[in-house]
Amino acid sequence: MGLMANKGAVGIRLRYRDTPLTFVNSHLAAFVQNTAQRNAQYRDTAEQLLFPYGPPGSATAAAAARGAEAWTPNLNPEAVKVGEGWSVWESEVLVWFGDLNYRLDLPRADVDRMIGNKEYDLLLGFDQLRVQQEHDLAFEGFAEAPISFAPTFKFDVGTHNYDTSEKQRVPSWTDRILYMGLRDDAVRAVERYTSHPEVVMSDHKPVSAMLSLSVYNVLQEKRREVHEEIVAELEQYDGDELPDVKLAPSPSIDFDEIRYDEPVKREIEVVNVGTVVAPWAFVVKPGTSSLTPPWLVVTPASGLVLPGARQTITLTIHVTSSSGADALSFPMSTSAADIADLLVLSLRGKDLFLSVSARAWTPTVFGARLPHLVRLASPIRETNLEQRVRIAQVVAAADKGAPAGPDGDDVPRSAVPLVLHNLVGFLAEHALDVPGLFAMPGDDELVRLARECLDTGSDFPLDRFLATASTTATADHDEAPHEPHHAEVADAVAALDALEADIGAISLSSPSLPSRPSSPHLRTSAGRSNGARLGASDDGEPDHLGLHSLAACTLGFLASLAEPVVCWSAYERALGCEDRDEAYRVVRELPEAHANALLYILAFLRVLLNETADLEEREARRDRLAVIFSTVLLRAPPPSSSATTGSAPPAPPSSTVDPTTVPRRKKTFVLLLLRDQEAPSATSGGKVR
Amino acid sequence: MGDASYDYLFKVVLIGDSGVGKSNMLSRFTRNEFNLESKSTIGVEFATRSIQVENKTIKAQIWDTAGQERYRAITSAYYRGAVGALLVYDIAKHATYVNVLRWLKELRNKSDLRHLRAVPTDEAKLFSQENGLSFIETSALDASNVEGAFQTILTEIYKIVSQKQLEADPALSHRPGQGSSIEITPSANDGGQKQDGKCC
C-alpha cells in the first residue's frame, strides 16, 4: 500500500541575520507497535539529512570545505557526519515537527475517558514519544511546550469524532512540534502551541506553534577589528610563560544552611593575574571519579581568561534524593554529614584548590531510605546527629546481612515511617470524601509547609489544610464545627488499625505501627471543633486545596525516596506481573520496610476506593489511582549500580522489557495489587491478603 | 618550549608547614624572584629549571604544594612520581621543625618510592644528624643557599639514579621519573640567624 513511499522527511536550513536555523518535517512510520522503526527513521534522518554548503563552486562552499567558515553552532557535537554539508545539528535552533506517529500505549476506553476529563498530563505519561525521549531512544534533548490540546489523531474525516471504524484506533498525539536551541535563551518562549480542531478535512487535526527566538547579528567590521586585536594580543605573549590566575574573592566558598531541594547559588571569579592567556578547567580530584560531589554543580566547568580579565563561575548546591540527601540526613559517621569538598581548578603548570562547604544540612525525611525512616522514633529534626548515624550504621550492617548480634539492630523500628503514618492518617480522617484526591495538583506553598511539619513533627495546621483559599480569611470567626462523616472516619480508622494484623502476618518480624504522639487525627472521631471548616469556592463546591496539597505531599514523599517503595531489585519482576497472586509474591519478597509501606498505602487506597459507591466509577477511580501511584511506587533503577542502595544491586540495564510498555506495566502491577481478592465482596476495606 | 635537550627529568616536591617559605624558594630557584607579600599557596604549582651535573643536563620539575593541614589529603596525591622532596621548615618557628617528622611520615605513606629506597630511613637520619649532611639553612630572601639546596638534592638524586642504571641495564637508561628518594634530615642545630627558611 505504498507504505514505504509515503514516509520521509524534508528540511530547510536558513540563515536569519547571522543565525542558522533548521526546520525538519518528518512523517515517521505508522501503527502502535512500530516505535522502534520510528526511532530508527528519526536517527537516519538526523544523520543523513545534509544541507549543501552552497551552490557548487561558490565561495561559501569552498570556504566551508576548507573549514575556514566562521564558527558554526553545533547542537550535537558528537554526532557523526556521513557526507558533505551542514548537518541538522549545525544550527542555532532546530525545530523538528510533523506526523511523528508516536501513539498512546493505553486501551481506547481509558484514553477516551481521560480525554473527556482533560487529563492530558496523565495521558502523556503513556505517550510513546515522551517515553522514547526519557530513555534516550529518540528525540533526546528536544523540548516541547506543554500540551493543552486533545490528541490530534485519528478522526473520522469531516467530523470531530475519534475513529469509529472497527479498527477503533487509540487517539494519540501523533502531530508534534519539538525544538532544541544551542543557548538557553535561543528559544525565548513558545508563544503558542495548539491544535486546530475546526479543520475536518483530514484524519489528523493540524498543530501549530509560534516560537520566539533570539537571533544574532554580527557586525562584520567590528568582528574583524576584534579578531585582529585578539590575534595581536595573543602574539605578544611569550609561549613559555605559564598562566597565573587567582580565585576572587577567595578560594573558599561557604554556603549557609542547605535544605532539601532548595538550590542555592554562589559565584566566584577566575581572575587572570598573569601575562598570558589562561585556559582553565576543573579536573577530577585524585582518588575520585567526578569533578564535583553529586550535590554540587559548577558552570562553566572550564574556560579561558585573557590577561587582566575575569570570568564568573557559578556554584549551585542542590540536594535531592539523587544527589545524596539520604547520606546527609543519615550519615555513616558524624563527619560524613558535612557538606564540604575541595575542587581542583587546573591550569598549565598549576592547580588551584577551591574549597566548598555549607554551614549545615537541615535533615529531612525526604529523599531518605525506608529502612532508615522506620527506625526514626521521633520527628527527624528532634533527633541528633549521633542518633541518625547510629541508624545508618545499623541499617548498613543489616544490608550486609549481619545477624542481629550483641551490637546488632538495637534500634527499635515501626512498621511504616511515622511521617507516612501521619500523612495517611490525616487524609484518612479528613479527605476520604474529597473528589479527585491525588489526581489534583496541590499548592506549592502548602506542600512546603506540609514537608516542614513532617520534619519538625508539628501538627498540620488545620486552618491551613482544612480551609480553602476563599474561606481562610473568615476561618477565625467562623466557629461552626466541622462535621466529618463520622461513620466513614471510624471505618477508615478501623481499616487502618486492622492493617497491623495483616502486616504482621506478612512480615514475620514486623514491629507495630508507630504511635502517633503528635498526631491525634486518626483517633479523634466525633465533632471536634477546630475553628475551621471545609471551605467553599465561589461555585459552592469546596476546593479542598489544603487536602490536595497533603495528597501531593504524600506522592512527593514517596517519589523522593532514595530507593522506591518497590525496590530496584524487584522492579523488573514487578513489571512482569500478570496476575494478583504474582504481584503479591513480589510484595512479600520486598525487604520488610518496603513491603510494609506498600501494604499500608494499598490499604489506604482501598479505603479510599470504597468511598465511591458506584461500581463503574470505582473502577475508573481504581484505574486512575493505579496510574498515579505506579509512577511514584515504581521507578527504574539508575543506570549505574553505584546508587546508594542497600538491597541487591539493581537489575542490569539489559532489560528485557520493551520501554514503550513500561508505563502500562507499572500501572498493571499497582492495579493488580488494588484488585479485590473476590471481586464482588469489596467491602472489607483494610483486607490486604 | 618543548625542549628535549635534557638528560634527566626529576620531579621534586617542596613540602612543609604553611608559611615556611616554600613558594619563595621555588621562585628564587626557578625565576630568581622573591615576593615579600607572598600569600599562602592554595593549590599546587610547578616550575622547571635545568642544571648541569657531571656534564649531564638535569631538568628539575619542582612542585610547590599547599602546606595547610586542610589540604593535606589532596596535596599528598601530587607526590606521585616524585623522586625527591625538600622538606622545609622555618628556623624562627619551632613548631614547623617539630612537624618535620610528621611530614616525613606522610612522605613514607604516600610516596611510591618506597621500594626504590636506597638508604634506610633510620640510617639516613642518624647519618645526617651525625654528619650534618644534606641539611642546609637557606634564605630565599637573600638567595643564600637556595641554589645549593636544590643542587644538593638534584645531585644526590642523579647519583642514585645513575648508580642504579649501572647496576641494571645501561641500555634502559634515560627514563625520567626513575629514581630514588634521599632523606635529607635536619641536624639538631636550630639556632641560625637567617630569618627565612631552612631547608632540610
TrEMBL record, chain A:
The keyword Nucleus does not apply. Transmembrane segments: none annotated. Gene3D superfamilies: Endonuclease/exonuclease/phosphatase (3.60.10.10), Immunoglobulins (2.60.40.10), Rho GTPase activation protein (1.10.555.10). This is Rho-GAP domain-containing protein. Residues 509-540, 637-664 are annotated as: Disordered. It is found in: Cytoplasmic vesicle, Phagosome membrane; Early endosome membrane. Residues 509-520, 641-662 have a biased composition (Low complexity). InterPro entries: Endo/exonu/phosph_ase_sf (IPR036691), Ig-like_fold (IPR013783), IP5 (IPR046985), IPPc (IPR000300), OCRL-1_2_ASH (IPR048869), Rho_GTPase_activation_prot (IPR008936), RhoGAP_dom (IPR000198). Residues 406-669 form the Rho-GAP domain. Keywords: Cytoplasmic vesicle, Endosome. The lineage of its organism: Eukaryota, Fungi, Dikarya, Basidiomycota, Pucciniomycotina. One of its GO terms (cellular component) is early endosome membrane. SUPFAM superfamilies: DNase I-like, GTPase activation domain, GAP. One of its GO terms (molecular function) is phosphatidylinositol-4,5-bisphosphate 5-phosphatase activity. PROSITE patterns: RHOGAP (PS50238). Pfam families: Exo_endo_phos2, OCRL-like_ASH, RhoGAP. GO terms for biological process: phosphatidylinositol dephosphorylation; signal transduction. The keyword Transcription does not apply.
TrEMBL record, chain B:
Belongs to the small GTPase superfamily. Rab family. CDD domains: Rab11_like. It is found in: Golgi apparatus membrane. It is a lipid-anchor. This is Uncharacterized protein. GO terms for biological process: endosomal transport; exocytosis. Gene3D superfamilies: P-loop containing nucleotide triphosphate hydrolases. Coiled coil: none annotated. SMART domains: RAB, RAN, RAS, RHO. It comes from Rhodotorula graminis (strain WP1). Residues 169-200 are annotated as: Disordered. Residues 178-192 have a biased composition (Polar residues). GO terms for molecular function: GTP binding; GTPase activity. InterPro entries: P-loop_NTPase, Rab_GTPases_membrane_traffic, Small_GTP-bd, Small_GTPase. Keywords: GTP-binding, Lipoprotein, Membrane, Nucleotide-binding, Prenylation. PANTHER family: DRAB11-RELATED. One of its GO terms (cellular component) is Golgi membrane.
